[in-house]
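User: Quick one: structure for sequence A, then sequence B.

Assistant: Sequence A:
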Amino acid sequence: MSYLFIDTCAGAGVALVNPEDPSETLVKVNPDGKAQVEALSSLVADVVQEGGRPEKIVVSRGPAPFTGLRVGLVTARTLGFAWDVPVLGVDELLLQAQAAAGVLSGADCPSRARGETPRWIVSLMDARRHEVYAGLFRPNPAGGPVSQCGTDWVGSAGLLKDITQGWDRDFTGFADGRVFLVGNAATQITGQTVDVRFADLARAATSLVNGAAGDTEAPQELALQSTEPQYLRRPDIQQKS
């Protein structure tokens, strides 16, 4: 079984993943955040031509800016209908944190070599207008899915310290060596960052879907099934000047 992963939260990326052997991952990425519409269809065509038609589609449902997010979701739904395969959505901030947890657990990870055990992962994605989408997560020591503290949030990065302490009263701040930042807005906060590749995101997405599939009543499963977009605020065109 293979999964097609689509993410248009920042640029456009497509991957074909074999869950039984995640090393077999085909990746095509266009990092231009203003060219998702033009790029996505050709990326999908290239991956499917090389790796074949998938049995499932997994798509990021944000939070992300309006236009790019819609491109990915509409494409995923259209392909799912045309190919008659299931389409599952996954939260982008959860996805970033899960991918970061995988990188941090790797034997060649520098922080692991220094004996630093991650206690929190903060996902930060660019929301434009000098704001970020953010979420606070705790890694699973057993290597399973990360758990979220609080909810997805959008606002100024300068307010994030107070927000995160509200999500988890044990949170000690971004200077703590056990806190790791991930996402394309991670550099807006001073702290340790984790670099994840698109292949890491794709493998994290399939692991989250597979992990939730065993319990159809679990809230995580219901969230993963949804392909409704998460904007967290109205589209820019609707904002008052």
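Sequence B:
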Amino acid sequence: MSNIETVPASIEMKPNPTITVFERSPDGGRGLARDMPVRWALEEVGQPYHVRRLSFEAMKEASHFAYQPFGQIPSYEQGDLILFESGAIVMHIAQHHSGLLPEDALRRARTVAWMFAALNTIEPSILNFTTVWLFERNEPWHEARLARTKEQLLKRLDELSAWLGDREWLEGSFSAADILMICVLRRLESSGILKDYGNLLAYVERGKARPAFKRAFDAQLAVFTAASKN
């Protein structure tokens, strides 16, 4: 059975890209793997795409490193173009399709800044905290380090919440920046921390309510479910 499948969307553009994804995602199908923002962006712009499912063993093979220098997922192939890093892939999709970046040059520049902020400012504080919280519980430094990383995280969330205020999206209309930021914030869902930030929690829920998000989520969950049956 082929490990490549086609995910349809409403508008067909050729050549259709192929993205690599986990054959069995370690997140248990919760949509936290790095292919999720790429899937979401493709669904938002109506671009059909193919999926190549990779086992952890296949990710270590030289053939995969030719597409992804760090042996991770996702990679993105479209004709002669090969990309890696989910943020760069989302940027490429947004630049080559309408709807995910503003037409106005100033607003577009601000939106790009928020894309970087999601991955370079907000996500590191989340990953630092969740790494200690989930994986270092038996270490002697756990309590002290957890307190420090939580303090740093809350500072960033305070700042993000203050900026968002009662805005619906980060910069006017929905954009690629919201895709990346919401995917980053979803990493906190199991911690309950977002419950103390009503506007951030509502922001995430608005993103999850979008039809394109639901299609992307269902598609990645279907891959995990199929692998779990084998």
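The chain has two domains: 18-99+213-219, 105-210. The CA atoms of residues 169 and 178 lie 7 Å apart.

User: Thanks, that's what I needed.
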